[in-house]
Amino acid sequence: MMRTSKAAKDCYTEQETADALGVTLARLHMLLDEHVFNDGTSRPEELTFTQADLALLGFWQRSSPNPKVVRMPKRV
After folding, report:
1. What is the pTM assigned to this prediction?
2. Which of the listed residues 33, 44, 56, 66 has the most CB atoms within 10 Å of its CB?
């Protein structure tokens, strides 16, 4: 779980999200491309994120492949 001493915001920029997750902007884009924009649609130029988005992105950042978990195939 992400912990911060700052008050939660309603909306986070891409850079704020990457900073909160402790990753680079390139890594954030990779996570988005792998888990969200994987159906052939392109990632929008500018995105904003909520606290729930940060939680899910943090989970994806920390998760490693697990043979007991059936992952959805990538859309082609």
Report:
1. 0.71
2. 56
